[in-house]
Design goal:
With 485 residues, the protein is of the alpha/beta class. It folds into two domains: 16-232 and 378-480, Alpha/Beta hydrolase fold, catalytic domain (Rossmann fold, 3-Layer(aba) Sandwich); 236-286, no CATH class. The chain is built from 14 helices and 18 strands.
Length: 485
Amino acid sequence: MAAPTQPPPPPLHLLFILLLTVVLSASPAFSSEIVDSLPGFSGKLPFNLETGYVSVGDSEMFYYFIQSEGKPKLDPLLLWITGGPGCSSFNSLVYEIGPLEFDFDNYEGGLPQLISYPYSWTKAASIIFLDSPVGTGFSYSRSPEGWQSSDTKAANETYEFLMQWFAEHPEYLKVPFYVGGDGYSGIIVPLVTELILAGVNQGGQAPNIKLRVMSHQTFVYGYLVGSPNTDKFIDSNSKVQFAHRMALISDDTYHTAKNYCNENYIDVDITNTNCVLALDDYETCVKYIWPNNILEPKCTVGLPHDERWSGRRSLQENSDSFILSSLQSPDLDCPTADHVLSDIWANDEGVQDALHVRKGTVEQWSRCNVTISYEQDVPSVVHLHQYFTNYGLRNISSLISGDRDMVTPFVGVVQWIKSLNLSISDEWRPWFLDGQVAGYTRQYEKNRIFRLTYATVKGGGHTAAEYYRRECYEMFSRWVNLCPL
């Protein structure tokens, strides 16, 4: 994707930009329903839940919308996109940032039970959980061509979805708005943010957008990414440096690789024997490490690519028998063991009726659909992060890393942040929760206008919000309320 043209420098007194007006060229196909109870949850839901579809071209984009449990008329609105690509936003709702979780400890078969989770981001914001791209969760296409997706297409469809959603919920144009996501959505979130800021009309399908510059402090616009994919080369290349800093490989292996590979561990010349041998040593040392969190045991229960777990196969057979036998295996302590509960729950007919899912549109729901037809056509979004530094936005960006994540290591995130040439406004320091160090943070700025907050979660994996839900809630709550970590 070519770098966008440079925007004119904003006046210094203008601190915020907010999407204010949506004009539709035609009435969109939009359907939504209020959900006040869910199978597996005792009693009525203690929050306001809406589910629905928005038609975008040949695609039907499914979403869950949870109104803020605080002050919905004042609290921010967050659009959340889960990574993968292909992981349902329900993953984030129930495992990361939402107000529900499965009662995994007491599961004995049958329909999994849901319980309230107290440290939900919905305490501080209203959240749209979007199933994107098409083929993710309950989102589907009405044409064969519509099932094919890419970074660019996913971003455009998300942009169009958002504009139509605002047209049906104009009251949320009055509150601060953020775009957020984690994992692979580190690529998609900046693409969507750029589309919104530019007010692009993609292919004649998107509604016409007008951006109005606001000078009132209440209107804050920004984006947030957690454990983010950002640049294919940086993300992958940083794993060797991370392994060395975490004592997973020896000094000799690291320095040999660094010197003979010229700090390029991706595009390796096979005739460069010393480099190849050093990387072989690296692979041998990390082969049995769980990359999502190097402190956790390597196991496979609940993973979409697990040879012993095929959601499509086991659910067509006897899912209750499968999950009980799996959870009695040595992988009981697997950090992803509870992921199988989401597949059991979301494929239940009563659950889909309660969520108002259109019958016959998705043959088999998967927490993460690894079979989607998807082209990764945007190798890097560093140029977009650079582009955003020219906007006069006070609270534009927050980056979260788990410091034990070897999928998108923090050392790579720090590397591309440095390339933005920002000034450090708050030096590297610990941030605290309950009197204990919860992680470390540093704040950057440009001309006292653009502000970026980077924070780590101590012991966190990929993604940080799944391993340390409360810590990430506290981080988010402080950030959107313009409070220091």
